Amino acid sequence: MNKAELRKKYKALRLELSEDKIEALSLEIANQLLQLPVWQKEFYHLFLSITEQKEIDTENILHILQGKDKNVVLSKTNIKEHKLEHFLLTDSSVIKKNRWNIPEPEGGIPIAPSQIDVVFVPLLAFDEQGHRIGYGKGFYDNFLSECKADVIKIGLSFFEAEPEFNEVFSTDIPLDYCVTPNKLYSFKN
């Protein structure tokens, strides 16, 4: 299957999930995350879920990060420059949904991509080599290319890995890990 077919397949699979199932699977993913050796870092980039797209609910991960007193970084979409802008989540952060229903900070304390240690990466599908398929706009690949070389990239998926993608481009940045409700995948050599 090509990327377009895989996007269609995994969007359809997500649409079949009930709210209760999403909540249960999201909690299992958060619990699996605790096994990764990534909790000694300082700045963690987290995406906030698009509930209309039936994405993984990242609220449990947010609670883990806050409980460990970590700096949480959220993104705002800059459509004109085709980039993400990053802001520190604070008690005074105001979160609003943009026109694509993505919850985003209205502004705040800017954080440079080079400051971020760990990125939780949204995706629709991934393969056993750590390649991911997102919504196809390239925002996360652009963002990850701006991060420091040793940034830890963790995908989150309701579903297990595909064996291998046919289409992988030079601009595609592979994951270091992917976490599903049942398994931790490590792509680090």
From TrEMBL:
Organism, as annotated: Salegentibacter mishustinae
Pfam families, alphabetized: 5-FTHF_cyc-lig (PF01812)
InterPro entries: FTHF_cligase, FTHF_cligase-like_sf, NagB/RpiA_transferase-like
Any coiled-coil regions, as ranges: 3-35
UniProt KW Transferase keyword: no
Protein name listed in UniProt: 5-formyltetrahydrofolate cyclo-ligase
Cofactor: Mg(2+)
UniProt keyword Signal, yes or no: no
EC category: ligase
Record family assignment: Belongs to the 5-formyltetrahydrofolate cyclo-ligase family.
Residues holding substrate: 50, 55
